[in-house]
Design a protein that fits this description.
Largest sheet: 7 strands, antiparallel
Shape: globular
Number of helices: 4
Number of domains: 1
Structural class: alpha+beta
Helix content: 25-40%
Low-confidence stretches: 1-7
């Protein structure tokens, strides 16, 4: 069991790809200045990104001294457990081609989850990203 866990944390990339970064930057833009700064701090601390189920789930970790951590100073809320921070939709030529959710764990950004398998993102495509901060999140921070 321990070997499986260790092998899980060894697989992955060190950073987010362009699509993931663009989605998260769009979320940052929708937040208050303080929350945006906190989320940006978290994004800068990520040093292990795992893409599961052909990239449909993207889990983000900060590995410190060999272990994953969630820093309390990077919390967007004090709510324990998993909550949806935001939903997103990617639109190209007035057609939605990808949508999903941005998840927090114990108040800290943890993952992106796509509704369908993500398609290959081409940087120079005309893509609009629409982000909606979840009502639940907005209600708990007020």
């Amino acid at each position: 069991m321990l070997k499986k866990l260790i092998s899980l944390f060894k697989k992955g990339d060190k950073s987010l790809n362009n699509l993931e970064s663009n989605i998260l930057n769009s979320v940052v833009f929708k937040l208050s200045k303080d929350l945006a700064n906190t989320l940006n701090d978290r994004l800068r601390s990520i040093n292990l990104v795992q893409r599961i189920n052909d990239g449909q789930e993207v889990n983000c970790y900060e590995i410190y001294q060999g272990s994953p951590i969630l820093r309390t100073e990077q919390r967007l809320t004090d709510i324990k457990g998993e909550i949806v921070l935001a939903t997103f939709t990617l639109i190209r030529n007035d057609v939605t081609f990808l949508s999903g959710k941005v998840w927090l764990v114990d108040g800290v950004f943890f993952s992106l989850e796509y509704d369908t398998l993500p398609v290959k993102f081409i940087d120079n495509d005309e893509v609009n990203i629409e982000v909606n901060i979840s009502d639940y999140f907005l209600n708990i921070i007020q």
